[in-house]
Amino acid sequence: MTIVDRAHAMVTYHLDVVPGPLYHLRSLTIHNLTPAQEQRVRELLGIKNGDVLDQLAINSLSRKLASDPLLAAHGFTFSPVKDRGAAQADLTLDFYEVSDKSSVTAQ
Core-most of 3, 18, 49, 61, by most CB within 10 Å? Predict the structure, then answer.
């Protein structure tokens, strides 16, 4: 349903949201960091085993890394493996160093 109020330049929408299944974090594995860096990533991510797996938290981790002196030179890829029957997920974060210098070779 859409309601248009032309006099006030406003539009109102009614949306029905059907949420998908909630997955809880069963395990978090972090690769290619020192123990101190790994601990800091866990703090910045803010998700612990048993918590709902939050895609927004994973997405915001990239922004948080850029402002953290211990992790600013790092990026990561992630891969959640979901167990639908148990509604749980195992999350792996693979870290790599980001180089300020990029080069491309074309042949």
Answer: 61
Model confidence pTM above 0.85:
no
HEC string of the chain? CEEEEHHHCEEEECCCCCCCCCCEEEEEEEECCCHHHHHHHHHHHCCCCCCECCHHHHHHHHHHHHCCCCCCCEEEEEEEEEECCCCEEEEEEEEEECCCCCCCCCC
C-alpha distances out from residue 76 to 57, 63, 83, Å = 14, 11, 23
Encoded amino acid at 14, one letter = H
Q: Which helix (H) or strand (E) holds 62?
A: helix 55-66
pLDDT tens-digit readout, 52-107? 998 899 999 989 999 999 999 999 999 899 999 999 999 999 999 987 545 444 54
Backbone φ and ψ for 77, nearest 5 degrees, come out as -115, 160
Tokens found for residue 65: 């890394």
Helices (H) and strands (E) in the chain, counts: 2, 5
